[in-house]
Design brief:
Blueprint (H helix, E strand, L loop, with lengths): L2 H6 L2 H7 L3 H7 L11 H7 L2 H7 L3 H24 L3 E4 L12 E4 L4 E5 L6 H9 L11 E4 L7 H4 L6 E4 L11 H11 L5 H15 L15 H15 L4 E5 L8 H10 L3 E5 L3 H6 L2 E6 L2 E7 L2 H5 L1 H19 L8
Parallel strand pairs: 3-7, 3-8, 5-6, 6-7
Antiparallel strand pairs: 1-2, 1-4, 8-9
The chain binds adenosine-5'-triphosphate.
Adenosine-5'-triphosphate binds next to helix 7.
């Protein structure tokens, strides 16, 4: 929708194309324009006192409206646009060619495995940076089989990639609810109030110890903040690609976390050494000396072993729980 169409067509027509505009008026506590009224007329008719209460002049209000619609249109197009991500091999640390090309589609989970220092984070960084042969590995990342628009590298709003890193430190003096609400609003997310509630509820399902919207973010434990950021990414982030740098040590329900992230039809790449998570992926990339040395498709035999691994895991979790509670393990 052009600026002209947005401002001069009857509001009912504009709303049919951009239902999220209701949220814009809600957030300013303004009544919606009449069906036949154009937004330009609505803005011209706003009382000066109303604008003063909002802390905006007429031009700034108009600009906020236009930017909001541009932001919303940009976000939905980013998500719809990504049907595939291709990684074209570069060179390992010894300069040997990787010789692979891998295409990933939404809904797929790929694990990245390899010894410490082998280059797992580097591969995630190449994807986040949408590398074009300009990183130490010489890899190239294509979107829908082509070199993507360079704005994806620099735009913070239309991010191609959401990255969940291992360390989460909050320094702001905000409650959980305020923090997530500000985040939702900054992302132009429609129906943000419902989403905020959903995020807090989901995060509580992932974390062991419950917390609520009034908890100050600085007093969340490591596992709780991680759970909050995972739920936030799954529900708020419009980025079609999610990169996860290890979730196994976070003290959260990692299987649920993965299920939550995958449900939102994203391409997920995850550095992990957790056998259960590794087998839940469709394939894994084995990194050695900075290069992808092998690509393993999860076999039926491996998948059949998942049940057994889950039983083992539950036994270990139960023991861990007992240790946490201060029990002894004289009898298993
Ligand atoms: N193909 C490559 N060519 C040159 N340098 C590389 C290559 N791959 C990785 N490196 C460099 O090697 C170093 C270690 O890589 P990285 O941090 O990605 O390892 P990692 O597997 O994530 O380690 P950890 O498991 O300890 O987090 C980094 O400085 C990275 O930039």
């Amino acid at each position: 929708m052009t600026r002209d169409q947005l401002l001069h067509r009857p509001f009912a027509e504009v709303l049919a194309q951009a239902a999220y505009l209701r949220d814009f008026f809600d957030s300013f506590a303004l009544t919606l324009p009449a069906t036949e009224q154009s937004l330009a007329d609505y803005i011209a008719a706003l009382a000066s006192e109303q604008l003063e209460d909002l802390g905006l002049d007429r031009e700034a209000f108009c600009q906020a409206l236009v930017s909001y619609v541009e932001g919303m249109e940009g976000l939905s197009s980013t998500q719809e646009q990504v049907q595939s991500l291709t990684i074209k091999g570069g060179f390992n640390k010894q300069g040997d060619a990787e010789n692979f090309e891998l295409e990933l589609k939404p809904g797929q989970v790929v694990c990245i495995v390899g010894p410490t220092g082998s280059g797992k984070s580097r591969l995630l960084a190449d994807i986040e940076w949408v590398a074009q042969g300009d990183t130490p590995t010489g890899r190239q990342i294509l979107i829908n089989g082509a070199v993507p628009d360079p704005t994806w590298r620099f735009s913070t709003e239309h991010k191609l990639v959401a990255q969940l890193s291992q360390n989460m430190n909050f320094v702001m003096d905000l409650s959980v609810e305020e923090f997530i609400r500000i985040h939702a609003e900054s992302r132009f997310v429609p129906d943000s109030a419902t989403k905020v509630k959903k995020i807090i509820a989901q995060a509580n399902e992932l974390a062991g110890e419950p917390f609520d919207g009034d908890t100050p973010i600085t007093s969340l434990s490591g596992g709780q903040s991680r759970a909050l950021m995972i739920a936030d990414t799954a529900i708020l982030s419009q980025s079609p690609i999610v990169l996860i740098d290890e979730i196994e040590n976070a003290g959260i329900d990692r299987k649920k976390a993965l299920a939550l992230l995958v449900r939102e039809e994203k391409i997920v790449l995850m550095a992990t050494h957790d056998p259960i998570l590794a087998l839940m992926g469709q394939r894994r990339l084995v990194i050695r000396h900075g290069g992808v040395a092998r690509i393993i498709d999860t076999s039926d035999a491996e998948r059949a072993n998942l049940k057994q691994l889950e039983q083992l895991d539950q036994q270990l979790m139960a023991l861990r729980h007992r240790i946490r509670q201060g029990d002894t393990l004289d009898v298993l």
